[in-house]
Each structure stands twice: as structure tokens, then as C-alpha cells.
Amino acid sequence: MMPVSDSIFDSEQASMYNYKQISKMRAKKKQKQVSIQEYIETYCGEKRIRERYAVYVSPETHENLKKIVRLFCYEHHTTTSSLADTIICRHIEAHKEILNEEYREHNRKFIEDLENMGRKDELEFSEDNDSGE
Q1: Closest among 57, 58, 79 to 69, alpha carbons compared
Q2: Residue 6: pLDDT above 80?
């Protein structure tokens, strides 16, 4: 018989997460503790996903998702897919400003690189024409 634990995640499972990065983020923005009711309303609603795409997670993360789902699946119809989808949506919503900023910066650099490549091609074309006359 397995020993009964008083928590869903033990310290070994928790160690797979990069706590240095998590604590860095928490230092910037203090996380508010939510009640179980707020958690259920936020993450455990029934969500039908009609079009599906595969997202691969580690076995440890999948096991943790299943543990959470088991807590809420009967009363709230939570599934691993709906929980993962909601977590990802909430992550994107919480960090959309920085993600949008990075997206704009990436696109700006990409456009500059394209423009620089175009100038380089023009120079090469110009040099080829000059030498051929």
C-alpha cells in the first residue's frame, strides 16, 4: 500500500520547474493567492475543444495535469485538454504585453534584415553590371 501524502505534488516533482525563473517573475509581480472557488471558476470549467492540435508535454507535466483533473473532473467536467488549454490561454493573456513587444521587435529586425539583404543584392547586381560593360 502506498503512503498517503498531504499534498498533490511532492518536492521531487516540484524540482522539475525552474524556480530561479519563477521567483524572478514573482519578484516583479507579486502573485495573488486565489481561493479554491476562484481557481475552479478560472481553470476547471467545461470546455469543448472541437478542432484539436497536439501539444507535447513531458511525462511529469502530463502526470501533474492528470492529478489536478482528478480533483475536479466529476463535478466540473474538467479534462486534461481543457485544463491545458485554459492554462495556456491564461499564460498568453497574462503576458501578452511582453509577448507583443517581443513580436514587434522580432518583426522589426526581420524587416530590417530583408531590407539590408535587398540593398546587398542591389549592390551585387550593380557591381555585376559595371564589370560586364
Answers
A1: 79
A2: no
Please tell me the number of Cα atoms within 13 Å of 97 on its side-chain side. 1
User: Mean pLDDT throughout 45-52?
Assistant: 82
Predicted TM-score of the model (pTM): 0.61
| Cβ proximity of 83 and 69 under 8 Å | yes
Q: What is the DSSP string of the chain?
A: -PPPPSSSS-HHHHTTS-HHHHHHHHHHSPPPP--HHHHHHHH-S----SS-------HHHHHHHHHHHHHHHHHH---HHHHHHHHHHHHHHHTHHHHHHHHHHHHHHHHHHHHHHHHHHHHHHHHHHHHH-
The candidate with the shortest Cα–Cα distance to 40, out of 4, 8, 82, 10, is 82
Question: How many Cβ atoms from other residues are within 10 Å of residue 83's Cβ?
Answer: 20
Cα angle for residues 37, 42, 46 (degrees, 5° grid): 100
Overall average pLDDT of the 35-49 stretch: 83
pLDDT category of residue 14 using cuts at 50, 70 and 90? very low
